[in-house]
Amino acid sequence: MVDKKAFRSLSYGLYIVGAAADRKRAGCVVNTFAQVTSAPAQVSVAINKENYTTGIIREAGCFTAVALDESVPMEMIGTFGFHSSADTDKFAQWACAEDEAGMPYPTEHTAARFSARVVSELDLGTHVLFVGEVTEAEPTGTVPPMTYAYYHQVKGGKTPPKASSYEGPAETAAEPQPSAEEAAAAPKRVGWRCMLCGYIEWTDELPDDFVCPICGAGKDMFERIEE
């Protein structure tokens, strides 16, 4: 038996990985970036094979990674985590810079940045594990780095379906259900669920200019729900 709730005890950070090749920039949010050796300094990152960023890293042969800090707005996570670099230049929407190899990275709401040259690649089925030798690294801020737990518990964030730690539609433990009599007597609560990231806004109606605070989707990407 594999109880996926066990994986919630593992500690992660939240990072944006970026790369550029053939005048195309790509980046995505990951929670799998980690140091694997110290001499030489090497890091690894697992990215879904279907992510556009995966192909750009392969083509570039190097990548950047920034550790997001606790001040990062959910709009920034939405830009990099719930959209595709195939049709969106995510770096154009936020302050960014390039390392010595010309790889892009965000410069705001970060605690540290890293650059790495790919030295090996491992096929993990749904994901690819890139191992890179660190070529640049520096702290970039004083705000504490954001943990994955902080992202979920304080920011109210969701896990994208392509993420390594995605558990399926129900990411949280099941809550006790009311009896049939209680359910019939209780007034219905109306909400609107984002079909892109799963965020729910509890209100009778959404204004026409409503934008999802998680992924930036517009009103037309929300479905009406009741409970």
Describe this structure in words.
This is Flavin reductase. Keywords: Oxidoreductase. Pfam families: Flavin_Reduct, RUBY_RBDX. Residues 160-184 are annotated as: Disordered. GO terms for molecular function: FMN binding; iron ion binding; riboflavin reductase (NADPH) activity. By secondary structure, this protein is mostly beta strands. Helices cover 13% and strands 35% of the residues. The protein contains four helices and twelve strands. It has helices at residues 52-60, 74-81, 148-153, 180-185; strands at 15-21, 24-30, 34-38, 41-48, 62-68, 96-98, 104-106, 110-123, 127-139, 190-194, 200-201, 222-226. The strands form three sheets. It has a seven-stranded antiparallel beta sheet with strand order 2-1-5-8-9-4-3. The longest helix is centred in the N-terminal third of the chain and has 9 residues, at 52-60.
Oligomeric grouping of the chains: single chain
Secondary-structure element order, N to C? EEEEHEHEEEEHHEEE
Structural class, from helix and strand content? mainly beta
Q: Give the averaged pLDDT, no decimals.
A: 86
Sequence of strands across the biggest β-sheet: 2-1-5-8-9-4-3
Low-confidence stretches are 170-175
Largest sheet: 7 strands, antiparallel
Q: Strand content of the residues, in percent?
A: 25-35%
The end-to-end span amounts to 32 Å
Relative helix content: 10-25%
Rg, Å, rounded? 19 Å
Gross morphology: globular
Number of helices: 4
Overall number of strands: 12
